[in-house]
Amino acid sequence: QLQLVESGGDLVQPGGSLRLSCAASGFTLDNYAVGWFRQARGKEREGVSCISSSGGSTNYANSVKGRFTISRDNAKNTVYLQMNSLKAEDTAVYYCAVDETHWCGSYYQFNPSSYDYWGQGTQVTVSS
Asked: What number of CA atoms fall less than 13 Å from residue 113's CA on the CB side?
């Protein structure tokens, strides 16, 4: 059974840090680019970051550049999102996802409709 499971979300103060994990089972993540998305209450789901299958290429939304870092450990079949200098605007449910057809760096990299597999999401709340 193919599955993506996010973990690591928490309540943190502004300026704090979290590391999210996306663990895959039922398939090998190293064949695919992986994206992180987030959806704040009442807002559209938006792309945050993506990473190529090998980890050699990464892209970030402008809103998180310099603060978030995506990485992967293919041996562990896991992708990570390190989030530093967190802001209240980062509060959202964070999802990892896999697009079978496209790649990180493509026109579709931050298009949720292009992604085929999704995790259940993990809540990140940034508040004092």
From this structure: 2
What's the whole-number average pLDDT of the chain? Answer: 95
pLDDT level of residue 54 (50, 70, 90 thresholds): confident
Chain centroid to CA 74: how far? 15
Q: Which H/E stretch holds residue 18?
A: strand 18-25
Task: Please choose, from the candidates 81, 47, 80, the residue with its C-alpha nearest in 3D space to the C-alpha of residue 62.
Answer: 47
d(C-alpha 56, C-alpha 71), whole Å:
9
Q: What is the pLDDT of residue 2?
A: 84
Q: How many CB atoms lie within 10 A of CB 113?
A: 7
pLDDT higher than 90, residue 91: yes
Q: What does the angle CA 36 – CA 60 – CA 97 come to, to the nearest 5 degrees? A: 15
User: Position of tokens 């089972």?
Assistant: 25
Tokens of 102: 């496209």
| CA gyration radius, the chain | 13
